[in-house]
Write a structure and sequence with these properties.
By secondary structure, the protein is an alpha/beta fold. It has 2 domains: 279 residues, Acetylglutamate kinase-like (Carbamate kinase, 3-Layer(aba) Sandwich), CATH 3.40.1160.10; 149 residues, VC0802-like. It has 14 helices and 14 strands. The strands form 3 sheets. Strands 3-2-1-6-8-9-7 form a 7-stranded mixed β-sheet, with helices on both faces. Strand 13 and strand 14 form a beta hairpin. Helix 2 packs antiparallel against helix 5, helix 4 packs antiparallel against helix 5 and helix 10 runs antiparallel to helix 11. The structure holds aspartic acid (ASP). Aspartic acid (ASP) binds next to helix 7. Aspartic acid binds next to helix 7.
Length: 440
């Protein structure tokens, strides 16, 4: 029998009725044997995700404001008891909530606190389906550097082989210190991928609230075209650049085993969704661009120095400056006598930009340093670009026709993407212009 792993995201776990609908989806296919769940997410716009409430609880405990913690935890209690009432079964949810509250108050830590949404949601789904609950700490392990421990897949295979079906909480595992540790936000997608790899699933289904990937953000272009299939590489480029249907790191566990991912819509289960595969089966002649995504708030620092090209170690010295402060860069376009570093604004807060400029001045004595703030990066992604002559000419012509000034250009060496830097204010129009050129 084939094994499918299904991961249900926060909106698919948001209320008792939606959880019942998700359970129906799982039960409609006997191959859907391992289920990974997120914490209850938003039911409507303006609602608060359980995970966000839990992080608020952690902040309140850390600052010693126990009255505020009790109030916030009370909101979480209401969310879960409402879910239990809607499901119409005694799931002993108050016992689980009491245990979590006591542990948090006795110093279990921030990650433990944040993980309880998934823990309780998985307990609920396991009871609804009447299948065993397996805690993620039993096999998802992190190493000393916070990365996924190599032993995870083997351990996962061993632990999960004891079950023909199971429900597993997403988002966390066990840290090297023996305590609960979470992935980064949205990391339930990575947990689903880890489970899929551990049981060598034939398919990893990621159930969410959209019917897959669209060529670009529907908030920017009205009803953009749907993408039936993406490769792992295309997915990584698009999700890293802001297409947030799936966590950008979720391909890593399944990639080496070539397990395909399917994005499915819990609210429209009959929709085909988007498949994410190792090698594209699409006819390259039929499309040039697969998707377009943009991310705002970057800064570019450009250093200019005569004869920079012959100065050995110039770039290395500049990179040492940012490395010292634990800062990574997104792009490094360079000319004969210039080099630029494009850095996420997140790294440059609280005077860090000024510190870097001064240290770069001292390290390499450039003739000039220019800073360009508030840049958006827009990535046009697709394996088809490498095979279709004139793609970049079409792209830049489309941007010039709508008067968009391009500050930076970077074409990945695999010819999988063309990234342009534009002003933040031009980001949406840039995406629209590229979409119109290639899809209208
Ligand atoms: N609940 C976590 C979050 O909100 C993880 C997830 O949903 O995947 O980030």
């Amino acid at each position: 029998m084939a094994i499918k792993v299904c991961k249900f995201g926060g909106t698919s776990m948001a209320s008792g009725n939606i959880i019942l609908a998700a359970a129906k989806i799982i039960e409609s296919d006997q191959d859907r044997r391992f289920v990974v769940v997120s914490a209850p997410g938003k039911r409507f716009s303006g609602d608060i995700k359980v995970t966000d409430l839990l992080y608020k609880c952690a902040d309140e405990v850390e600052s010693g404001d126990i009255a505020a913690f009790k109030e916030t935890f009370g909101k979480i209690r209401v969310r879960f008891t409402n879910i239990e009432a809607e499901i119409g079964k005694d799931l002993h949810i108050n016992d689980g909530l009491d245990e979590a509250e006591n542990e948090i108050l006795s110093g279990a830590g921030r990650d433990y606190c944040a993980s309880r949404g998934e823990f309780l949601a998985a307990k609920i789904m396991a009871a609804v389906l009447d299948v065993p609950f397996v805690d993620a700490t039993e096999f998802i392990r992190f190493d000393e550097n916070g990365g996924l421990d190599k032993a995870t897949f083997e351990l996962g295979a061993k632990v999960l082989s004891k079950y023909s079906r199971a429900v597993i909480p997403g988002f966390y595992g066990l840290g090297a210190d023996g305590k609960v540790k979470t992935f980064s936000r949205g990391g339930g997608d990575i947990s689903g991928s880890v489970v899929a790899r551990s049981v060598m699933a034939s398919l990893y289904e990621n159930w969410t609230d959209v019917s897959g990937f669209y060529v670009c953000d529907p908030r920017i272009v009205n009803s953009p075209k749907w993408i039936p299939e993406l490769t792992y590489q295309e997915l990584r480029e698009l999700s890293y650049m802001g297409a947030n249907v799936l966590h950008s790191e979720s391909i890593f566990p399944v990639r080496s085993a070539g397990i395909p991912i399917r994005i499915c819509n819990t609210f429209k289960p009959e929709d085909a969704g988007t498949y994410i595969v190792k090698n594209s089966t699409r006819d390259i002649r039929g499309y040039v661009v697969t998707g377009i995504a943009g991310k705002k708030d970057f800064t570019s620092i450009t250093l200019e120095k005569s004869l920079m090209n012959s100065e050995v170690g110039f770039v290395q010295k500049v990179l040492a400056v940012i490395g010292r402060h634990g800062i990574s860069f997104e792009h490094l376009p360079s000319g004969i006598d210039t080099m630029s570093l494009v850095i996420d604004n997140e790294f440059l807060k609280n005077g860090m930009l000024e510190t870097l400029l001064q240290e770069m001045q001292e390290a390499v004595h450039p003739d000039k340093i220019y800073v360009h703030e508030n840049i958006a990066l827009v990535a046009t992604v697709g394996h088809g670009m490498a095979k279709n002559v004139g793609t970049s000419a079409r792209l830049f012509k489309a941007l010039s026709e709508v008067g968009i000034n391009v500050n930076m250009i970077d074409q990945g060496s695999s010819e999988l993407n063309i990234i342009v830097g534009v002003d933040n204010a031009d980001c949406a129009n840039c995406i629209k212009a590229i979409y119109n050129e290639f899809f209208n």
